[in-house]
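Weekly structure sync, notes
Attendees: PL (lead), two postdocs, one rotation student
Agenda item 3: pending single-chain targets
PL asked that the sequence for the first pending target be pasted directly into the notes so everyone works from the same version. It is reproduced below exactly as submitted, 133 residues in total.
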Amino acid sequence: MLVDRNGNPGGPELENSLPSRSRFRRLTPDNTLVDGPALTGYYTSDPAMDCEGTTVFWRDGKLLTVDKDLAANELFAMDDSRAVIGRVLLLNEGRVAFSLDNEVLVFRTPLGPLAEGPWPCGGGNLRGNPLSS
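Predicted structure, written out during the meeting:
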């Protein structure tokens, strides 16, 4: 789950069943769930968000983005069903890196710098615990 600059949480749903009924969803301030694009498969990396509100993540053999308007874009695809997926890191100049089993994949993308949102996370949130300072 990610939190955008307006404090709205959102991200890819995770379920361990096929066919997938998961979607990218966002929770609005009035507690309404907004449906984004449908997602295939269920092996999903931890996502990252750039400064423009675009989320990037690996799911079902694809590097996907979902922008602030919930429009999806596929940046890369390959026939791969490995289930050991790491956290997506958004690096300088739009580079995206993550581990896939015993490999590290790095892609050049049009993404901007990592978002600075209302929910900052220490150390890139590598331990999974949000920090407020």
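Discussion points:
- The chain has no helices and eleven strands.
- The CA atoms of residues 64 and 74 lie 5 Å apart.
Action: rotation student to compare against the earlier draft before next sync.
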